[in-house]
Amino acid sequence: MFVCICRAVTIDEVHEHCDAGAYTVDAIGDRCGAGEGCGTCLDKLDTILNERLSTATTAA
Ligand code: FES
C-alpha cells in the first residue's frame, strides 16, 4: 500500500527507513522522497512515526 503516491513509497518502505534510523518525516523524505511532492502524505507519515515511537516507548 502506497503512503506517498507522488514518490511511490509504500508503508513497508517507510518502516524499513525507520528501522534504518530515520525517525522524522524529514529523515524519511531525505531517504526516499516521501512527503517532498504535494505534501498530502505528511500526516500519514507523521502518524506512522508516532505509532512506532509509541510502540517503542511501551515496549521498553
Ligand atoms: S503523496 Fe507524498 S508528496 Fe504527494
Automatic annotation (TrEMBL):
Question: Does Metal-binding show up as a keyword for this record?
Answer: yes
The answer to whether the entry has keyword Metal-binding is: yes
Q: Which residues form the BFD-like [2Fe-2S]-binding domain?
A: 3-51
Q: Which UniProt keywords apply?
A: 2Fe-2S, Electron transport, Iron, Iron-sulfur, Metal-binding, Transport
Which Gene3D superfamilies does this one have? BFD-like [2Fe-2S]-binding domain
| Name of the protein described by the UniProt record | Bacterioferritin-associated ferredoxin
Family matches, as Pfam families: Fer2_BFD (PF04324)
Please indicate which superkingdom the organism of origin belongs to: Bacteria
One GO MF annotation is:
metal ion binding
Give the record's family classification. Answer: Belongs to the Bfd family.
